[in-house]
Fold this protein.
Amino acid sequence: MGSIELLEELVGFPTVSAAPNFALIDFVRDYLTGLGATVEVMPNAERSKANLFATLGPTDRAGVLLAGHSDVVPAEGQNWSGDPFALRRKDDRLYGRGTADMKGFLASVLNAAELASKTPLATPLHIAFSYDEEIGCVGVRPMLERLARRDFHPRACFIGEPTSMKLALGHKGKMAARATCCGVAAHSALAPTGLNAIHLACDFIAALRTRQNDIAAHGHRDEAYDVPYSTIHVGTIRGGTVLNIVPTRATLDFEIRTLAQDDEAAILSAIEADAERLAAAHRAAHPEAAIDIEKLNAYPGLDVAADAEIVAFMRTILDEPELTRIAFGTEGGLYTRELGIPVIVCGPGSMDQGHKADEFVTTRQIELCDDMLARLVGRLAED
Ligand SMILES: [Zn+2]
């Protein structure tokens, strides 16, 4: 099977993040076992999904890791011109959910595994497929905990998220949080006698916007990003029940996306101090006044120096790669943080097509990725 046939198989498994991924993982396990790889399937506690870690070549030393996620975003509610989970080819485009993000890369990895199985490798090739990446890089974490306990860690990790085969040296980190604003109920005719939780939420949002303006004006900058500073954004707000009751609850979800130079925990601490100051101002009259902040999820950013060894290595397997930074997050920062290994992001297809109806990858992008991985296998045979 070549990469395109493998992609057809992988797209056929509807591995949206909410659904089990065992059918895909079983397929990959059988395929890699058939090639002589050492394959470990690591199910989650509920045994509904699993990570997969495989090694081709010697198992007594560190190798190079190709990593990606097996889950895809849903196609529901999107206007597809055909079945999202059946690969369709039109001219040089391969349409289907996950073709760009990121089963195109997984297919190319499986194709390279066949080449690796026929090549005597001095350095092993590792493969890691995770689950639940799309809901905040959640599924990879237990696999990283297990890998971190081993005697040696991979020497380097390539994450094949879609970069149009450019070398991505970094992306921002992200933290999601929920603020619950607590007020005091009253009849709306007597509104000033209560404490309006929605008004409190508005004051909190104003504080977030002041922080954002301050970061934009005085914080760190990295001009390689479209938005060259860390950002704070409110995504949802809910509050109140009916018009004639002063609302007691308002909740809002917000996120902080940070440059590598900024510490999201420090920004969150400053926001928590703002929240406490705003609530404390009402406590004399209303002891219940509070703005409680709960951290929902976070993953670290990624920042690789242009003169890093991994970049020099990539130049030996890619023809004059363009260096870039990406707007979306990856599992890469977690690999670096948990295993202390260098990570680079490079894969076929573009996120311009990811997560949309009629997602596609071009056959040319798959070929370029196949070429890169073939050269990588060649390098692993040498040293
Ligand atoms: Zn992805």
Remarks:
- The longest strand covers residues 173-182.
- Residues 69, 101-102, 133, 161 surround zinc ion (CB under 6 Å).
